[in-house]
Amino acid sequence: MGEGIHTIKSAPKTDRSYLRDTESGMNRQEAFRVNQLESKIRNRKTEKGYIVGANGEIIGESIRSTRSSARFKVSDLMKSKNAILTHNHPNAEMGGTMAARIGLPFSDKDVENAIKYNQKEVRAVTPNYTYSLRRPKDGWGNDDQKQKIYAALRRWDARRIANYNSYKSLRGTRSNYRETFDRGNVGGQWSAWKQFMKETGLTVTRRKNG
Question: How would residue 6 be classed by pLDDT, with cut points 50, 70 and 90?
């Protein structure tokens, strides 16, 4: 086993739905390993992430996890060029509603790291959905293009925060209010990502599992 190569213990078997990802640019080894890992972490209460290489090998995994973050070694991120980074987004801070199981897309840091380390794809999985941002065929662009993406991310974050604050008063209240909060939070963030895509030309996809 080569230096820096990681293993996975007790990963559940995946079904053949992983073949859908071969239609989107992954080879079979990548698709099988990524889907295998995602089936393991999808329902975790804390974040967990993996970096998967072209042969399906695990070249890095998160070393510290909380409800809202998964930290990787910089040395592993440095090896993630042309690799796929996948991680879960727990709904632990949400109310266990249907909207919570749809979950939230990426953070700005997810996108920034994908560009910084020239990753092939970054993915975020929730109990019911998989989010994906793939590197464009011609790459992440030159420095000016990258700066435009970062500026769009700042605008996205402002819209995300404004939306969150508009529903914040409903957190921790009766269950029917909680449903309203979760729907508004999830829907608002997805709308903010649609605007980000319009501004940058990048494509974030959201796919239902199964």
Answer: very low
pLDDT per residue as tens digits for the range 145-180:
999 999 999 999 999 999 988 887 776 666 667 788
Strands 49-52 and 84-88, sheet pairing: antiparallel
Q: Which amino acid is at 66?
A: T
Structure tokens, 34? 């990524």
- What amino acid is encoded at 205 in this protein? T
The dihedral sign for the CA sequence 203, 166, 70, 42: negative
What is the residue-averaged pLDDT of the chain?
A: 86
Residues 6+ apart with CB under 8 A from 161: none
User: What is the distance, to the nearest Å, from the Cα of residue 76 to the centroid of all Cα atoms in its chain?
Assistant: 17
60 in any annotated domain: yes
What pLDDT shows up at residue 162? 93
Whether residue 24 lies inside any domain: the answer is yes
- Percent of the chain past pLDDT 90, that is, above it, reads 59
Residue 83: give the domain boundaries. 16-141+202-208
With respect to residue 182, please indicate whether it lies within any of the assigned structural domains. Answer: no
| Helices 108-116, 143-167: inter-axial angle, 10-degree rounding | 170
Q: Is residue 94 part of a domain?
A: yes
Is residue 134 within 8 Å of residue 120, measured between CB atoms?
A: yes
Q: Which residue has the tokens 């990426």?
A: 106
* Token pair for 168: 């914040």
